[in-house]
Structure formats: C-alpha cells, structure tokens
Amino acid sequence: MVLSDGPHGVRFQQDQGDHLGVHHSVPATCFPSAAALGSAWDSELARRAGQAVGREARALGVNVLLGPGINIKRSPLCGRNFEYFSEDPLLSGVLGTAFAEGVQSTGTGACVKHFAANNQETDRMRVSADVDERTLREIYLSAFERVVTQARPAAVMAAYNKVNGIPATEHRWLLTTVLREEWGFAGLVVSDWGAVTDPVAALAAGLDLDMPGGTGKTGGQVVAAVHDGRLAGAVVDRSLRRLRDAAAATAIAGDLLPVDVNDQHRLAREIAADCLVLLKNEAGALPLSASAAIAVIGQYATTPRYQGGGSSHVNATRVDSPVEELRAQLPGARITDHDGVDPTAAAAVGAAAEVAVIFAGLPERDESEGFDREHISLPADQTALITAVAQAARRTVVVLFNGGVVSVEGWHDKVDAILEAWLPGQAAGGAIADVLTGRVNPSGRLSETIPVRLNDTPSYLNFPGEAGHVRYGEGVMVGYRYYETADVAVRYPFGHGLSYTTFEHSDLMVTATGPDSARVSVRVTNTGDRSGKDVVQVYVAAPPLPVRAPARELRGFAKVSLEAGESAVVTLELDRRAFAFYDINAARWAVTAGTYRVQVGRSAHEVTAEAELDVTGDQRPRPLTLDSTVGEWFAHPAVGPALNAVLADGMSEEQARAAQENQDMLKMVESMMMRQFLSFLPVPVPDADLDRLIELSAQPASCT
Questions:
Q1: At CA 183, angle to CA 598 and CA 448, rounded to 5?
Q2: What is the tens place of the pLDDT at every residue in 131-187?
Q3: What is the DSSP string of 567-605?
C-alpha cells in the first residue's frame, strides 16, 4: 500500500522517500494550496480539486493520499498555514469533507490530518497543546468530526504534538473514545512521520500504523510486549485487520491509466481564479484596460511563488508566468516589465505607465513546514518597492503571493487595488491574468482575518508557548470570534472580498424546522453589469448562554453564480449544532432556550440582514447537587420557589422577617456550594426535603 503526500498535488517518490520534500518526486499537477482553496468558499470546487488530485494519485499507483490538512489557523504565524483551509471549523470541515469525498471518488483513499490541536511548527515534535475540552470540541475537533462522519476517509493521521500532556499518537481519549466510539471511525489511524516514541502505548491507544517504520525496531517492541503480557495480541490483530481492510479498499485493479496533464492544468487554472480575493479596488483600478500602458513590476511576475515548502512540495508539470499570460490576454496593451530589484528604476517604469502592477509576497524561506514565522510583515525590500512605485505611478495594483496572512500596513493607503493570490498553484499566472483583466470576476472571500497588528491577534500572548507547553488561553475566541466579540478593529475581516459587480441580499426568511433547527432563505440579486459569484454567509448570534459565547459564529454558507440582473433564492439548513455549545459538565452538546439572531453577512463584520428565531432548547435540565451553588439552586425556576418555601417553614416569624429584610445578603453567598450554605442555617433542612428538591431539578421543564 503506497501512501503519498498530496494536500494540493501528488508528491510521489519512486526511489528514496522522505517527509521534508528534499528528494525528487515525479512530475504532478500543483493545484492551489488549502489556504487558497479555503478562500473560494465553494464545496463543489473543493470536491473537483480532490477528484483531480485523486486521479493523478491513482495514475501514479498511490493508494492513500495524505490530505486534506484541516487544522485551524489559530495564529497567522504558523508556518504551515498554507496547508490549512481556515480559522473557522465549519468552513474547514465543509471544504475538507468535499475534498476528501472527491479524492475517494477515484478509488484513492484520503488521510485527513493532523489529529489534533496541531497549530504550530515551533517545537512541533513534543510541545503540549494545553486546551480545555469545550475549546477542543467546538474549535479544534469540529472539522475532523465532520470529515470523519460524512466523508468516511480511509485514514486519519495522528499529529506530532501532545494534547494536554499526552502524545497524540498515544492519546486513547482522542484515538479511541472520540474518534472511534463517538464518531464511528472504522478506518486506519496512521502516525505522522516519526511521531511514535512508544509503539506499544500507541497501539493500545488506537494507533494502527507507525510511519515511516522499516527499521524492525517497532515490531520487536510490539512482539516483546505481547509475549510479556503488556499488550494483548487481540490489539495487534485488530490493527492488522484495519491495515488489510485499508489496503483492500484502496487497491488498484488493472493497469495504471495516465491523466491528461493539459486538462489537469486547465482545471488548476479555473480553480485558482475562484480562490483569488480582491481586497481593495478604488477608482476602477481593476480590471485592467485592454489598451492601457501597463508596468508589470517584481520578480514574482515572471517566476511566481505558487506553493509552500516541506512535505507537500510538488514537482509541477509546468508553471505559468503572470506577465506572459497578461501579454497573451491583452495584445493591444503596452506592457513593460521590471524585476523591481532597484526601487528607483522600478518607480520610473511605473511613472511612465497608466497603471503599475506590482507582484510581491513572501519567499519560501519565510514560511514552510518545520518552523513558524516571527512576524507578518512583507520583506523590507518589497515594502520599499511598493512604496516607491505607488508614490510615482498614477495607479498602483499589488498582487500578493503568500501562504499565511501578511500585513498590508504602511503601504495599504498608498495603492489603489490589492489582489490576494495566496499560493495558487502552477496555473498562477493564467488565473491571476484572468482576474486582472476581468475575464474572470473575482469571487474569493477571506477564510482568515487580516489583522492590523500581530499584537491584536487572540493568541498573541500565548503563541508559541514556553517550557514545552502552549496554552490555548483564548479558548473558543479564535479568529473573527475574538475580533467581533472584543470589538477589535481589523484591516480586513473574515469573509471579506470584492467583486467587479455588486450584489444585494433581500427577503431573508428564517423558519423553524424543529425545536433546535431552522431553514434560512435569502434572495441574492446581481445588481451590477457583469456576471459574477457571491458568497452567502449565515451567522448565528446567541442569546445569553451559561458560557461565554462569540458575538456571532458562521453556521452556513453557499456560493451562487448570477448573470447581470439575475437573482436567485439561496436556501440553507441549520441543524442542532448551529445553536449548540459543548457543555463540559454534562459532557454533551447543549442548546439553550431563547431568541437567536440569524444573520446574513458579506463578512463576519458586515451584516446585511437578520431575523430572530425562538429556539426551544434542551428540555433536559442539569440536575442540582449539594455541590451546586446557592445561586444555581435559587435561580432554578421550580426548585428556587420550593426551596424558599422549605426555608420559610423552618423559620420563626422573627427569622423570616429578618431574612426578608436582608435579601441583598444572598448575593454574598451565591457562589457558595449548597452543602456549605446549609451548615450556616439556624434551622437544619430535612434530608427528605433536599432529596425531593434534587429530584425536582432533574425533571423536564414542562413537568416542573
């Protein structure tokens, strides 16, 4: 059974394999990275990308593709963010599911990674991600849960890091309790390369395959553990069955059929064009005029940076040049190009043109697997180049190549347009030219926030940790959840993206389909003069909850294509999880009764329409105990009045009058456990009355 890297293209090594992209791999199509694909907000596009990569994997004799990567972008500094979709678990989960389904539709198995809480490269082999269970469930496990339960991937890859002090490869709660028992995963659990330090503990926890293996040492340890009784032979047999089942399910029958690399390249170009995000476009700077004098500036204009470094590095079949693609699409334009090495000379070239297009970004040495970034700024020479050209040119457009978010501060207000290209794959040149010229209307939306300052990011004080631990102190307030809740200004919010046309949202309707589910419909109209695609983003704002909740959370989305003047009704279903939080005390997902606001937005910050929805919520109250607080006892709608009656019965007339006059004193003892409070009462409360009240607290609200 052959396993090969492949989040955005197959890295198949016929001779000596490695996991760092050091050795040569056979040519394969390099599709847009997950950071780019995430910004398309299009599950069907992700599915087609998965199918395309799966086809090439099958043609090369690969059984299992090591992807998609769906870890959450906790910090913009993570060096591997280019391999991940988003800062939001719903967006990551939906796109990851579609990609995995696309891969597996070809017969190739998908291996979703890296499970779990693998959100940095610093000390990645041993750091402990210290994170509470609610945050784990709502943010870091949610995308995995969706992919596992819906796409049924062939494999799940256990991460390098520890989770709350336990190596992920030896984490029974993760690999067995959650993954297999709760989510019903029946596939193969494989380690990240070299992640296993104790193969016996890993097997016992639920890991099946230690990669890369091959030394024989692991097998000897397992055999010895079975012989001396430390490991049951049935555990080994179980993992062997899973391995055989995975090999059989992904077996290649017949001859390997080659793919058409030209067709694959055309698809890579189509996908990449839908991933590009137009951040800014003032005074009609874009699209470019077919007869304009255009200065194309920067080394990336001829040799674009189109992919990340490390294990996902693909030996592309070909790479498009942006400047040559622009010349091909604009034969009537007067295009000059300059490498941008000398800002003064580049500024002169820009000044002589009607519009200057600068290609800038991060070099591969600044972001890759294996290390994190130290800041989010562009290299100083590129910032100087942008500033010099923008001061001289009549209009300036900046095209960015980067796997992780980069700051646009210091030069943002000096330029007219900014196109975020991410790492768009080998067809970068053609896709970018398609959007710059208007052949394709930009429709990408940010799948992660662009902050004003690194200091503003929610994980700033905790990333990347110290002394072998990284504390997830921001809890569920990751990305836009934090910025919107704390009212922190950002440069561009999650979900932002411009178009060459305009869209209007109207006729929002939210209809309950159950006690904790709803159907959302909204009419989208293309009010501009050219065809385009809009992304409908549905957020839910919760009423007061027993836990701290974000101002709003993404709960649904859809991309719709409309001709000029055309309108369509987009309908989305919100299930129970759209209104739920993870209750750590009850160890379950809980829905609080109340009025929720269902919002349609252009981004996490810009809401275009909203409607209220009354949700019944759970009818299973959390039973009170003597360890519950006094405040919880008195606040209970049924128990509170009954408790007051019991206390009044045991008081003298004078004590009752004193208690009535000192109601404010209750605030002083609200946080006290009931068992403590009872010991201070002048008259004991009978045990029978306490038992009756506790039993009353466990009854559904309709019965109390």
A1: 45
A2: 999 999 999 999 999 999 999 999 999 999 999 999 999 999 999 999 999 999 999
A3: EEEEEEEE-GGGGEEEETTTTEEEE--EEEEEEEESSSS
Looking at the DSSP assignment, which residues form a beta bridge with residue 109?
Answer: 64
CB-based contact 507:499 (threshold 8 Å): no
In three-state form (DSSP H/G/I as H, E/B as E, the rest C), the secondary structure along 105-153 is CCCCEEEEEEECCCCCCCCCCCCEEECCHHHHHHHHCHHHHHHHHHHCC
In the DSSP assignment, the letter for residue 33 is P
**683 CB contacts (<8 Å, ≥6 apart)?**
650, 651, 655
User: Residues near 57 by Cβ (< 8 Å), separated by ≥ 6?
Assistant: 4, 6, 10, 12, 65, 103, 106, 108
Indicate the residue type of 194: G
H or E element, residue 356: strand 355-361
- For the chain, the average pLDDT equals 94
Given 42, 123, 192, 366, which residue is catalytic? 192
Please report, rounded to a whole number, the percentage of residues in the chain having pLDDT higher than 70: 95
192 part of the active site: yes
Provide the 3-class DSSP secondary structure of residue 643.
Answer: helix
Q: What six digits make up the tokens of 583? A: 């209750």
3-state SS track over 227-290: HCCCCCHHHHHHHHHHHHHHHHHCCCCCCCCCCCHHHHHHHHHHHHHHHCEEEEECCCCCCCCC
Residue with the larger pLDDT of the pair 265 and 218: 265
3-state class of 527 per DSSP?
coil
Cβ atoms of 521 and 569 closer than 8 Å: yes
The tokens for 443 are 């429709």
Residue 700 CB neighbour total at 10 angstroms: 10
Closest CA to 83 of 118, 57, 122: 118
Burial 68-105 (b: 16+ CB within 10 A, else e): bbbbbbbbbbbbbbbbbbbbbbbbbbbbbbbbbbbbbe
Distance CA 424, CA 506 (A): 33
Structural tokens at position 175:
């690999």
Name the pairing type of β-strands 162-163 and 128-130.
Answer: parallel
Q: Which of 164, 171, 170, 77 is nearest to 120 (CA)?
A: 77
pTM of the model: 0.94
